[in-house]
Batch of 4 targets.
Target 1
Amino acid sequence: MARSMVPLLLLCMAAAMEGAAALHLCVDRLYDSTQGKHDDGLPHLNPTEEATWMALLPRKLGAKAEFDWLALYRSLTRHAGGGGAPAEFLSQASLHDIRLGPGSMYWQGQQTNLEYLLYLDPDRLTWSFRQQAGLPTVGEPYGGWEAPDGQLRGHFVGHYLSASAHMWASTHNDTLREKMARVVDILDDCQRKMGTGYLSAYPDEAFDMYEELSEAWSPYYSIHKIMQGLLDQYTLAGNRKGLGMVVWMTDYFSERVKNLIQTHSIQRHWEAMNEETGGLNDVMYQLYTLTKEQKHLTMAHLFDKPCFLGPLSLHGDDIAGLHVNTHIPVLIGAQKRYEVVGDHLYKDIATFFFDVVNSSHTFATGGTSTMEHWHDPKRLVDEIKISSNEETCTTYNLLKVSRNLFRWTKEVKYADHYERLLINGIMGNQRGTQPGVMIYFLPMGPGRSKSISGGPPSGLPPKNPGGWGGPNDTFWCCYGTGIESFSKLGDTIYFLEEGEVPGLYIAQHIPSTFDWKAAGLTVVQQAKPLLSTDSYFEVTISISAKVASE
């Protein structure tokens, strides 16, 4: 890709955000089946553009206040210590060093999920990728959202790569490692066959439609899943192919974004983003931390959706009408921006967002959303009249928000929220010990049942009656986040604090063993199963020194 891309994009961004052009509509183009129409747009602002900020200066304050107004903005957006994560951030203990305690509900959920991951066939998973690349297909394709005519086909394969990488780190199951490496090899063959860096299970014409603002069902959503899966294969499983494949994909899509901005405008790019693009900003920030390539940082910034982050930066709390799982991943990317770049404005955005959701849009379970959207604040009683509550994908992503906030602040309220949401919003999403049987929504209303809970909204293809899915013909988005959730149940138990004397934070009381290498200690947690009649929760924590050996 041409070296001129970065300054060109930055120049386009600066020009497009001048004056009145800074204000445009944030429209959720996903179909809202509760109203039978697309959501109304909300005005939004770029949260990091000084010209936009200055336009907000109240006229009655006059020109004399301009300097103080600008100083306030620059104070809000000041960088921390030259950028990067502050040293006081807690780090997540490696899944390679954590093992769940046998017999607990967490261990059982992990084992049921492992059985499903081992059941899935690499050739069937990658059938549509091979077809798209012009390679011979093997076996029969799966059904549901991974069917050859599914508009989101390929998304689950990305989730599979992430889930299997986390599961292998959590179990070191050799059979799983062989299977997931096989999937990466097949995708590598497909990418090389096409020869442009493009990698997907559907044609690139889907992105032509996306850029033309016509009907395309979230093509970047699937791309994010594939990129994240390949990156997880590299960072968690050491598969070097994964990193190279993501870099090549990024080259291709960076060129597409550059051409879109050159041909039309940065405004056109923002408008095209008014549908579900996943966490592309998040995965690009992750990639930048590995490569230090400026173009990867630029791509991350270009997917920091300003129509959502802008009002939050000004403490605007009106999120009603927005599609929830379109926007929480963008917020997670904003959190990553704070960690990578050190921009304190994005720390404030994330903290304020959590407060808004937790205070006005959250069920007793800790989860959020009805029919995949946020509705009027503090009116949840109206939302439980239907069964399409608390989409599993939103729970998966909201857990990430809580985890990051806890790492930053060490505040118990974030760990408490994580615990409540994990127990109530994740652990019951499997149907007992049946591998590959999960739900889409978690109904909140009295007398409601998971077996007849709402499936994907009827306005989104393909139609599905909901309830419990199946191992071969479902593959909803919530199946993807479901297999990820049950693959990394140990990722929020132990956190490490660097220093002359290393510190350990235990954030969740989940039966487990942690090999604390830095301290030369083994930490074991045991928890008595909790019954509704119990007046207290009994946890035993033992710490022992490891015996040195040759």
Note: The longest helix spans residues 240-263.
Target 2
Amino acid sequence: LGLVEKLALTKKEKNAKEIEHRKELGLPVPY
């Protein structure tokens, strides 16, 4: 993987974790 792909992947993983976290807390998910 190139650097750009790695960054994109990391960002996707962060978004996924954020969504999971919000679901656990019962917060609305913005997307």
Note: The radius of gyration is 12 Å.
Target 3
Amino acid sequence: MRRLVLLLLIVFSITGYTWNGAGHKLVAQIAYDNLSPHAKKMCSQIFQVREQDLESYFVTISTWLDDIRKKNLRQFNSLHYIDIPFTKDKSKLMRIKPRNAVWAIKQAILVLNSAKTNNATKALYLKILIHVVGDIHQPLHASTKVSRRFPKGDLGGNLYLFSSSPYGKNLHQYWDNGAGFLNNKTPQETRIKAHFLEKNYPCKLVQQQKPEQWADRAHFIAANQAYSLRTHKKPNKDYQYNTRQTTEQQIALAGCRLARVLNTLAS
């Protein structure tokens, strides 16, 4: 009974939903920096903001899907992730739920590409697209570890606890914070960090691929890198360094791919 109560407390105290706000703003800033003039015009029209105000709005709105979640508006909860299961103790794997992050991205593209869809609906799905493309590149949003202890999965690493770290109390939170890399707080800091990533990971070198492939790659990183940390152990310097490096790459990929999706829709 005490174990059940403890588990419920852990579940309901979980705060690591996604890349933190800084991560989503970085993805959005990189995407904005790589939007074509036609894509900027399209986004301005959909959001009904002036083009000179679009950058600020585009970056700020990237956290909207998390903001409404904090207000107990949970109808979009399943769109933040795709729980691709894996196991190391031969536990039975469950099916992937169909309404997930990959589905959300594809649905958003269909809506935005439709001439019959009204502007309000397009604005909603554009907000979803900006956010979820970021989410799906966070490795713990594409994975859940199934075991005898957690036969229905560990909630994307939220139940994978380790010794206290300034960057999170569980695996999911630790990766949400990019092991400390995602600490930009102001628009200026976000631009500086985005330009750093754009220089090191140029969009012209990024393979676009499909949302399913983005999820598969994120899942591979989670299963082979993120979960290499033993439970109840504090992340060492090597683990922290590798997590930060991977975070940089995944944030840059997400921003570039989001820009390319929007540029294609606007062309």
Note: The radius of gyration is 18 Å.
Target 4
Amino acid sequence: AVRPGELVDVEEVASGWATRERLAAVPEEPAPWDRDAADLLARETGLGRATAALLLAGLPGLDSWTRDFLGPGVRDLLGITTAEAAAAREELRELSLPQRRDLLDAAVPDDLRDPTALARGLAAAWIERFGRRVPVPEDALAAVTTLQPDIPATRLLGLLVAPAETPELTADGTHTIATTSYGHLYLRAGTPFGEVATDLAAAIAWAYAFLPGGHPLHARIPQALELARQRLDHDALLLELGAQHLGTRADVVKLFGDRPYADNPELVDDGLTVVSVEEWASLFFRPARLGQDTRSAALRSLGSGIVRAVDLLCSPGYAAIAERLAVLPDGSWDADPRAGTPDLVAEAGKVLGVDEDPATLYLQLLTLLEPTDRNVRAWNGWTPARHRKAGAVLLERGLVVEAKRERAGRKLFLPGSWTKAKAPNLPLESSKAELYDLSASRFLPDRPLPELFALAWEGTR
């Protein structure tokens, strides 16, 4: 018998680059930083520049949970912002520790002080192991993190930039529900679409509302939406809701019936939803069968984000957003009502007795989620003086009130009650709850903004 602590086998492990001789030859002084080398790595791999810089620097602070994990000195040296660094960290965290070591080990050149050689080595090693990424717009990488996506920002934006090249949007699969050795239920095999559905739904609305017409992210959104709908129409696709407290067995049966699931008789299956019969039930559903029937109502009553995402992706509102993106002129914003609803601006001006600028600003304050001073000036192409002039007219007519409110980003508000919100959302007029789903983690439009302007204006009549 082998005694505790007894050595029974020895295996030689390859040392890789770090031989004794090479380690002895490592210079004591830091190697020079070369931004051109980081740019080279980004171009070769398709990685964002911040991700490439973090990789070239040796993955510093990757497991830190501090937001500014690099500190201002290192960030300035690398030439990236705090938000860009955080987004890059989230992407590179997907690599396991062995993958990180293997990648760096394979890339280190003979001359440690040659950043270009290191960048080329990293590019070759990355592509060999993970393939070339689809390049995404740098200006959107940090901005999209306000959605707090579950997947890395580069992966999410890749779904919008090149949807036809992503397995999540191009491959169908058949899921089965399996059980771990600990008795937990999970989805086995199938397609990774379920990993991205919720984030994709949010990203489509965000890109429409917060990026100008003609932005590179806009061009392929109609295709991304069409591919997502094709995946959702696949009858064998199962999506996971997670565990929810449903109460007793009788409560579960009341919601979902008692027909056993074909692959596991301990679960019940009403044709749409598959549920474990226990107090904390695991739930899965077939999005292709989600409709307007009683069983769909039972599923929606649970308030799941993934079910809401499926509804959005299949909705007429999202189809209309895709159509609007195709005709939105370069550099324009639908958040400016003059772009999509000029007749409504004219009508509002006539009814309110004001010129075009005050009418435009009134509709924005009435309708939009984040009509901050900065946003309004960007959307409308206004100078601060022109903005103040329009606001002064509304104040004089008693159509708005002036106040200081925390995190509002503006001084003018519609009269009435005020709803607070957790970041990244901004607080807003309570009346806007009729236009948006304020139960979502990120407040976003579910239809084109011209339609929302019309609905909001109709509500004042």
Note: The two ends are 89 Å apart (CA to CA).
